[in-house]
């Protein structure tokens, strides 16, 4: 068999690097993009498929820290410019410095001059060159283009006057403090939706978010939630379901155990294993649970916060008090209309054998309570429950904050409350101590129970 000459092999590798994104990465960084790192080939192949197909607009890539996310993003921009020097690309990172560094690496790679015996970008894509005199670190153009081709920005930067075929977002969250600040997360999505997307142009624009996951409501999560079928998602966990590691060449189990030993377990699960939750900045961190409420005769109670606005939830909770501690026995949490929530609340109150039902009378609460009492009387032929009005005038946020320590110490949840009442659980555990909270109905009920137990300041009314 005739041996293939070395120069022929070299030219074949170049041609493959022009045609296939993974081959380009391997050509540029052969010691990193090794064939045994199979996840990298899968990532690159999926990125290329996303770039070449036309029915998706967003690509979310979630990988653990140090798994070559940013380098793959940098290589992608280089490869895209090699294929088409007229493309326009905008990248965003958590601050201007990092985004400019990303842009500078791409610019310097394209601008590197060939030397004897050393293969550079120009040996692959000779027609792609940085335009002389227009090569600042964060904004530059390519030869043959009548406009700037590359802009680096951030949520605090500007995108005015620049259009883009590709928007690439690289680790937009700086740290855990940002990740669990609802205001910061809201700002990131507003920046994408109201600023970055307004700069897209062409009939096949793309947005690629390369991120370590943090919170459920981070930018990756928001993109998935809001754009649905237009989103392609690539997710890799550091620790596989069978306990093996994604890539021992990058992170062994021993190193993983050392690095994560002192980390918050929730951050470990989010960063490394793509199980994002909101922890830092939450008002409530832990709740006591029970499998069986203490025995003994008690007054069975209910507390209900009706939906004040169209976006609010009704939250109704059955509970018992034993020795100063509160045990929640049933929960109804819904954003349905009153024709659904009134009979369901009546059913839960009757089924729970409730002796006293306290209903906040603000904003329609009085009418809601009157209807629930009528349903219990007409449908279940019962007058066992005494209904109590609570006219709430104090600041809701202040009440929730001031009651939180007591609630976590004295309120016991059913031991399966996460799965039995998922909407209630999600709203309580997502409540932020600082910043904007989309919903507070569940927390308001817990604050109301605290006030009843510690003060007993209520007024009875008849619904007549």
Structure description:
This protein has 464 residues and is of the alpha/beta class. It has two domains: 6-273, P-loop containing nucleotide triphosphate hydrolases (Rossmann fold), CATH 3.40.50; 288-460, Nucleotidyltransferase, domain 5. The chain has helices spanning 6-19, 21-28, 38-52, 69-83, 96-111, 121-124, 176-179, 182-196, 219-227, 253-260, 265-273, 338-351, 365-380, 396-410, 417-420, 422-430, 441-454; strands at residues 58-62, 89-92, 130-135, 139-142, 150-153, 166-170, 206-211, 231-235, 288-290, 301-305, 314-322, 325-334, 356-360, 386-390, 411-414, 459-460. The strands form two sheets. It has an eight-stranded mixed beta sheet with strand order 3-4-5-2-6-7-1-8, with helices on both faces. An eight-stranded mixed beta sheet has the order 9-15-12-11-10-13-14-16, sandwiched between helices. Residues 457-464 have low confidence and may be disordered.
What are the salient characteristics of this protein?
Nucleotidyltransferase, domain 5; 464 residues; alpha/beta; Rossmann fold; eight-stranded mixed sheet; elongated; disordered C terminus; 2 domains
Strand content: 15-25%
Number of domains: 2
Query: Share of helix among residues?
Result: 40-55%
The CATH H-level homologous superfamily of the largest domain? P-loop containing nucleotide triphosphate hydrolases
**Name given to the CATH architecture of the largest domain:** 3-Layer(aba) Sandwich
Short recap of the structure:
It is built from 17 helices and 16 strands.
């Amino acid at each position: 068999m005739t041996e293939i000459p070395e120069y022929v092999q070299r030219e074949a590798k170049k041609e493959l690097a022009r045609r296939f994104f993974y081959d380009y990465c391997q050509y540029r960084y052969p010691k990193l993009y090794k064939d045994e790192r199979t996840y990298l080939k899968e990532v690159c192949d999926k990125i290329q498929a996303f770039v070449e197909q036309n029915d998706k607009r967003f690509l979310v890539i979630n990988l653990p820290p140090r798994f070559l996310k940013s380098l793959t993003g940098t290589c992608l921009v280089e490869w895209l410019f090699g294929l088409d020097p007229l493309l326009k690309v905008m990248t965003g990172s958590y601050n201007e410095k990092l985004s400019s560094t990303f842009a500078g690496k791409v610019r310097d790679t394209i601008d590197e001059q060939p030397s004897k015996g050393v293969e550079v970008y120009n040996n692959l894509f000779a027609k792609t060159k940085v335009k002389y005199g227009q090569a600042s670190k964060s904004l530059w153009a390519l030869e043959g283009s009548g406009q700037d081709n590359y802009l680096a920005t951030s949520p605090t930067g500007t995108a005015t006057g620049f259009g883009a075929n590709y928007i690439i977002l690289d680790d937009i969250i700086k740290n855990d403090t940002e990740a669990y600040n609802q205001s910061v997360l809201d700002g990131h999505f507003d920046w994408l939706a109201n600023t970055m997307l307004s700069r897209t142009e062409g009939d096949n624009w793309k947005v690629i978010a390369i991120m370590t996951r943090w919170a459920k409501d981070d930018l990756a999560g928001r993109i998935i939630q809001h754009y649905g079928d237009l989103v392609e998602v690539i997710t890799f966990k550091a620790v596989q379901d069978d306990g093996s590691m994604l890539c021992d060449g990058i992170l062994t189990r021993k190193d993983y155990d050392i690095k994560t030993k002192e980390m918050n377990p929730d951050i470990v699960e989010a960063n490394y294993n793509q199980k994002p939750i909101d922890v830092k900045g939450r008002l409530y961190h832990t709740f006591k649970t029970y499998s069986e409420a203490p025995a003994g005769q008690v007054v069975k109670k209910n507390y209900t916060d009706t939906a004040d606005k169209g976006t609010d939830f009704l939250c109704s909770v059955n509970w018992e008090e034993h020795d100063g501690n509160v045990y929640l026995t049933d929960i109804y949490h819904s954003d349905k209309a009153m024709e659904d929530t009134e009979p369901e609340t009546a059913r839960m109150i009757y089924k729970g054998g409730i002796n006293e039902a306290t209903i906040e009378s603000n904003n329609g609460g009085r009418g809601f309570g009157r209807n629930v009492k009528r349903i219990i009387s007409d449908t279940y032929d019962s007058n066992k429950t005494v209904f109590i009005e609570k006219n709430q005038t104090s600041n809701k946020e202040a009440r929730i904050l001031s009651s939180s320590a007591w609630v976590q110490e004295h309120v016991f949840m059913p031991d399966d409350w996460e799965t039995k009442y998922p909407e209630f659980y999600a709203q309580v555990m997502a409540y932020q101590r600082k910043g904007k909270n989309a919903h507070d109905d569940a927390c308001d009920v817990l604050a109301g129970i605290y006030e009843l137990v510690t003060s007993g300041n209520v007024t009875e009314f008849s619904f007549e």
